[in-house]
Amino acid sequence: MRHIQNSLTLAQGFPEKLLSVLDTVEYRRIEDQEDFEDIARLRYKSYRERGVLPRSAGNMLDEADFDDHAYVFGVYLYEELVSTVRVHHVTPEHRLSQSGGVFPDALNAFLDAGLTLIDPARLAIDPDLNGERSALPYLTVRPTIMAAIHFNADRMLQHIRPAHSAFYRRYFYADTVVPPTFTSLYGFELTLLASRTREIRNKLLARFPIYDSQPYERRLMFDRSPPSGMPPLTILPTARSAQALARQPIRPS
Question: How many domains does the chain have?
C-alpha cells in the first residue's frame, strides 16, 4: 500500500493532483458476487473506523444493491480496491433511494414535482488511505456527477452528517433541503443537501476537470445492455481527453 499512499500526497496544484491520481484509477461496475463480497468488507471496515455503522449492521449488502436503478462502483488504484459508492437514479416512477428511506417527505416532494434525482449512497473509503490530503473522496464521488450528466437529472442529493455539509456546499454548490435531524436508523443526526445539476455543471467541470468525461465512458458506466451482453470488467477515466476536446476551437462549417 505504500506506493498508493505516496501517490495521494503529491505536492502539486490540487486539480492537477486529482488528475494525476485519476490516471492510475480504474472504475468497475460491480456485478459479480465475489466483487460484491469485497465491497461488503470495505464498507464494514470503513464504517466501523468512522463510527457510522447502522444499528442493523449484520450485512453490508442489501436489496438496493441489486435494484435495476442502482449502480455499485468500485474504485481501484493500482488494481487494488480502495473505495466504493452506490449511485441511485431516482425518478417519479422509480422511487427507491437511500435518501428516501431517511427523508421520505423531502424526496417525495421532489418526485411529485416531476424532478429526477441522483442519490449517492454507501460511500466507503479504505481508512488506511483516507488522510487529510487524500484525493479519494473526490474520485469516489465522480460517478455521481457522471450519472447526473448521463441521465440529465435535475438534482444530485447528499444525505450526510452535518459536519460534512460545508464541503458539499463549497465544492458542489449544494443547498440545504433538510436541516440536521436525528435518524433512528443510524442513531445520529443527518442532513439532506441537493445540487442543481444543470446550473452547476459548467463551473463544476471547470473547477474540477476530473469530473469531465466522454459520452462513451458514461455509457460504459451506466448502460445495462452493452453489445457484448456483459458489463466491462474495468472502465478507464476519460477526463483528460474530454477536457482536451473541450479546448479545441470550433471550426466554421
Answer: 1
